[in-house]
Amino acid sequence: MKFARGVVRLRVPILVLTVILLIPAVLGMVSTRVNYDMLTYLPGEIDTVVGQDQLMEEFHKGAFSFLIFEDMPEKQVAALKQQVERIDHVDTVLWYDSLADLSIPMELLPKDLYQTFNTEHSTMMAVFFDSSTSADETMEAVEQIRAVCGKQCFVSGMTALVVDLRNLCEREEPIYVGLAVLMALIAMLLLLDNYLIPFVFLASIGAMILMNLGTNYFLGEISYITKALSAVLQLAVTMDYSIFLWHAYQEQRSRCSDRLEAMAQAIHNTLTSVVGSSVTTIAGFIALCFMSFTLGRDLGLVMAKGVLLGVIGCVTVLPALILVLDRPLQKLSHRPLILRTGKLAARLVRIFPVFLILFALIVVPAFYGYTKANDEVYYDLGKCLPEDINYAVSRSKLSEEFDVASTHMVLVDADLPAKQVRAMLDEMEQVDGVKYAVGLESLIGDRIPAEFIPERLTSTLRSENLELLLINSRYLPASDAVNAQIDELNAILKRYDPSGKLIGEAPCMKDMISISGHDFQVVTAVSVAAIFLIILFVEKSLTLPLILIAVIEVGIFINLGLPHYLGSSMSFITPICISTIQLGATVDYAILMTTRYKAGRIGGKDRKAAVTTALAASIPSILVSGTGLFAATFGVALYSDIEIISSMCMLMARGAVISMLLVILILPAMLLLFDRVICKTTLGMTRVEKHSAETEALNHA
């Protein structure tokens, strides 16, 4: 109680300090760099990432793009090429004039060379940058290229994707927060008993969100997914804690004439329940930190920090605001939409076998859809953007005009004889889906002496230790076809040069596929184990953790299995994150009801009376909490043009509703079914089980 009374006594200084802290929080939020390139979260020791580092060290090249010019005279293209070369951080631009003078007609060039750069209506040039794919300098260079070259030029490549993603996120993110706030506000106005308190909640939670976003500065950078979702998720998840405090204060206010003492008692009671509730949510987010694909650590740390700050705000800033605004709050009370739920609870308990049968019928198709949907996720990062955005149009042009869907780069030992390099390139060109494989040897042939090769070309494709080869593929990144192609190309490469490396967007995505499959299993196991142990400690039972997790896990199966039955697909990162977020954020509903059921049984009630009372008392809290999570995420899901953000928010919204229904309908039936086992395996309930057995024996007699 010392802490609670200290908060009440220092309520004005707490609010003043909060306002002061918001200044560095906003500055930190604005200064935190956002990473829009998901490939940078791959482990640093894998071949593709090591190869990218070697490309930068040996050739001073990081990002790579194709520029496609439609129906443009050669001289104008050449002039634009010179302008592109002058843009900061553009290292090299390869076009056919890199190998031959413009005075030589294109038709007289070697066929391979001509087809590399030209079609009937378009010409293409390759651009290398001296900075990494998602570096701010590279993104600025791509923006300048688009500005210089105009609408007849289409820029493809990962940096173009990152630029469009960044621009779309920056445009949409303020609207995400606005929608989440508006929808949550509507839900609270409908479901709570006061017209002003939702605005007080939003002020308190908003301050903690700003502090969470501001402290991200110390992480160096965060991913765009973390930035887009963290504010929405923190609002949705920590809203419950504010509701707990408000209800506790209202209850104490009716018992205690002194509002300050009532608030101190409310803080004390809320702190105990909120800490227990938040631990499961934090555990779910921390489980994401066990991913090899370090985007999980990025999202997990930020969200765990957000929940912790939400708890702190709930027992410090919110009580201070309520006390300062106590008079208008008391005047603006109204009857809540959710009134008595005793009759509903009694009816649901009466027909509990129906829900057990329904649960048994749902489990198998839900699990089947869940396993199938996980096999049907997509890894192509381009799919997260609208089809009419600049990058998507450019990629379509590259595929339609030049029959190139992805480009791989090969790094081989510079001492590898030219004859062997040619033989290797010839073999690679025979692999299904390879349009052509080019290097110095294939571009110039064996008739041109090495001393006649332009230095600008040799420095572009050869360093002191390595030679760079380019392979253009007809297959899209992350497709089964390109993954099989990469396996074949790697096998050929390793025969000629065991130290050689195949790098690029598609090889990186192939690594991402194998890593994310392992990550999904690890994160699911860690989150389930952590939450099992927490429930075991809280409920002091061997069976209750199994029952509670089983109910929520089936909800996850239903949620993640629906895309299979609906014919839709998810980003690979979605099921990994949703499985832990839904478990961590909604298992609280089950813990709340179970704790009340235990109290009823220990207090002498029979199983039906204990479950009915627990259900009646829990329904309002579960509905308000679940509706808040649904409201905060559903609007964003409908609005966002970024598929990853949209699908993740839709699954969070749907998961909240599914978990809410399962806890209200299925969990009471499970408690009734396993009541005797629960009593035998739960500390403090063995006497309850004996008493129940004796009562039943007397009734039969």
Provide an overview of this structure:
The chain has 701 residues and is an alpha+beta fold. Helix content is 69%, strand content 8%. The chain contains 27 helices and ten strands. The strands form three sheets. A four-stranded antiparallel β-sheet has the order 3-4-2-5, with helices on both faces. It is elongated.
Instruction: Indicate the overall shape.
Output: elongated
Q: Approximately how much beta-strand content do the residues carry?
A: 5-15%
**Uncertain runs:** none
Supply the helix-strand structural class.
Answer: alpha+beta
Give, in spatial order, the strands making up the sheet with the most strands: 3-4-2-5
The average pLDDT is 84
Features:
four-stranded antiparallel sheet, alpha+beta, 27 helices, 69% helix, 10 strands, 701 residues
Blueprint of the fold:
Layout: H1 2-9, H2 11-31, E1 33-35, H3 47-59, E2 64-70, H4 74-85, E3 90-94, H5 111-117, E4 122-129, H6 136-149, E5 153-155, H7 158-191, H8 197-215, E6 221-223, H9 224-255, H10 259-287, H11 295-315, H12 317-324, H13 326-331, H14 342-350, H15 352-375, H16 390-402, E7 406-413, H17 418-429, E8 434-438, H18 440-444, H19 455-461, E9 466-473, H20 480-496, E10 501-504, H21 505-539, H22 544-566, H23 573-602, H24 607-639, H25 643-673, H26 675-681, H27 686-700
Parallel strand pairs: 1-6
Antiparallel strand pairs: 2-4, 2-5, 3-4, 7-9, 7-10, 8-9
Helix pairs in contact: 1-10, 2-8, 2-12, 6-7, 7-8, 7-9, 7-24, 8-9, 8-11, 8-12, 9-10, 9-11, 9-24, 10-11, 10-21, 10-23, 14-24, 15-22, 15-25, 17-20, 21-22, 21-23, 22-23, 22-25, 23-24, 23-25, 24-25, 26-27
